[in-house]
Design brief:
The structure is a homodimer of 339-residue chains.
Chain A lengths: L1 E5 L7 H14 L3 E6 L1 H11 L3 H4 L2 E5 L10 H7 L4 H10 L5 E4 L3 H12 L9 E6 L6 E4 L9 H14 L9 E5 L10 H12 L3 E6 L11 E3 L2 H27 L2 H21 L7 E4 L5 E3 L6 H16 L2 H11 L1 H7 L1
Parallel strand pairs in A: 1-2, 1-4, 2-3, 4-11, 6-9, 7-8, 7-9
Antiparallel strand pairs in A: 5-6, 5-10, 10-11
Chain lengths: 339, 339
């Protein structure tokens, strides 16, 4: 299997991305196409000195064009046909790679994926699925930002697609909940109320309402919401972990006894931070496209990039798209009757 | 000043609530009416043995009727006219108390407040304002659950009301942001897009978009959103702090060196937990009603109840309602022109 990595996207530049690529190749027998400026990539490779067995599986696809983080996605994709992200998805389109991974401008990655690969049959709106760390297995929240104003039909599709993706985490019959406020059926906004019957009548293992606090408990496998609410959840969690880390660090630095204590307990905090750090979590798949695309956080570290490449591999291996097609076809009646 | 406390609401029963009441009286010269079952209240008072100077400022308003946590708020308020929460707000209505505080069924507290006190002039929808801990001063998020489907006009009113409430935290010219996804103007769902011009043309110090991660940074004083999104934010934060505490505790218990380290650094973690524990934060005011009502978390500890009583006192002292009336009147033109 070959995966295309946009070697120009991300806040840390190509070195971090290529370090992640090397880590992924060390752990797997994957092949990788690094899409970006050949001389910059070669420079990184010279510094990082991958083993021969890794270097043999690296290919460079040269382009100097790239989408900047602040650019308008739609404009960028229209104008920059040879940007690294467009060429990465072009490799998938031509069958030369089985998946593409980018830590660049998320909107542009999404636009490039949809433009190059198109949507899967019966999908109205592709969406982004994000795995959250919990006390047990990860929980998949979808959509986390691709679609801000949604209709019930979109949420049903997100649920079916995210449930298919949960195969990657070996979850057999995923428990699917809808994110809302209040525990009783019928609690929530109009979108939740209208989506309820669709989920209840679908083939999904629908367990009903899930509240924000339940996300981290691990008693549900897939949580569905519109992309506005999902993105707010993601960013609130990220911001809270950052602020908490800051507050604790501040406290620890103010006392030498606390500092000593922290040194002793540090492995616990390191492990905790790794568990909840979204940048480490390995990228979020854009589901509903006719191919595989993984969107990474701009600030992704080499480890995060490695994890994202592994998620791409697992998504292909678990036949997530074939499963989405079946699941959407099976539930077409539910959609048509109700919406 | 006299404050009415619903002595029957909350997950921990009257003992915890009354302990909180005693703490509040020890710190202030307030008077308190404890509304609930007299014999149960007397039993708690006998155990807690408040000082004479505190006991003198405690009055019992007897009723045996109460709203259960799981009850439908609307039904409960209609049927249980003598419930502790209804009588607490009745004291405010009759001018015998200046504010009411309840840790019972939140929906019922809201319904009782609106039923007994009515809305302030020009307020379409009362809403709940919640103070979040940040790296600096608290940030006020509104609405956090009273109104799940909102129109732009409602969000403008929330912003004006929450800005008035920020007087309680001595914030002079509060920076007001709208919760959305993405930094650029115009990013967000339809509600955000339609609310933007209202906020921009209001008398508020509107600073534009705020993302979920900005909530905890302290670079904004008031954040406005619909009650669905706000409630999700609140519950996600709560759930994440709980899960994080659980994960860290688990890690610490697995190693004796880590345990020792934790013991040494414990004051830091205690301080941190206090800073981010919403139950400790002292209740959220229902703004927009013709009086003062504070809604507490069901699991509120005595300290949380004390803090809620202090928030009630500060809300009255800071003339929040007078300020809301002025602010809404001043901005009526904005509302009328635009909505």
């Amino acid at each position: 299997m070959r995966i295309a990595l946009d070697a120009m996207g991300g806040d840390h530049g190509p070195a971090e991305l290529i370090a992640g690529a090397i880590l992924a190749l060390e752990e797997t027998d994957l092949e990788l196409s690094l899409v970006g400026d050949e001389s910059a990539i070669r420079k990184c490779l010279n510094t990082l000195e991958p083993k021969q067995s890794v270097a043999n599986r690296l290919q460079i696809v040269h382009t100097t064009e790239m989408v900047e983080m602040g650019e308008s996605p739609v404009d960028a994709i229209r104008k920059k046909k040879n940007s690294s992200v467009m060429l990465a998805f072009d490799l998938v389109k031509k069958g030369e790679a089985q998946a593409a991974v980018s830590a660049g401008n998320s909107g542009a990655t999404m636009a490039a994926a949809i433009r190059k690969l198109g949507r899967l049959k019966n999908v109205s709106r592709p969406g982004i699925a994000n795995a959250f760390p919990t006390l047990n297995k990860p929980v998949i929240l979808m959509d986390v930002g691709a679609n801000v104003d949604c209709r019930p039909q979109h949420l049903l599709e997100f649920a079916l697609m995210a449930a298919s993706f949960s195969r990657v985490y070996d979850i057999a019959s995923p428990r699917v909940g809808i994110l809302t406020i209040g525990e009783e059926a019928g609690k929530g906004n109009q979108l939740v109320k209208d989506t309820w019957p669709l989920l209840a009548e679908s083939s999904l293992n629908f367990i009903g309402n899930v509240e924000g606090r339940d996300i981290f408990q691990g008693d549900v496998d897939v949580i569905v919401c519109d992309g506005f609410v999902g993105n707010v959840c993601l960013k609130v969690s990220e911001g809270l972990v950052e602020a908490a880390t800051h507050m604790i660090r501040e406290g620890i630095m103010s006392s030498s006894i606390a500092k000593l204590g922290y040194l002793l307990a540090r492995p616990v905090f390191k492990k905790f931070k790794k568990r909840v750090d979204y940048a480490e979590y390995g990228g979020a798949p854009l589901l509903g496209i006719n191919g595989t695309g993984i969107i990474c956080h701009g600030k992704s570290s080499a480890v995060a990039i490695k994890n994202a490449i592994l998620v791409a591999q697992q998504t292909v291996n678990a036949k997530v798209n074939e499963n989405i097609l079946l699941s959407l076809a099976e539930n077409r009646k539910v959609s048509e009757e109700k919406s």
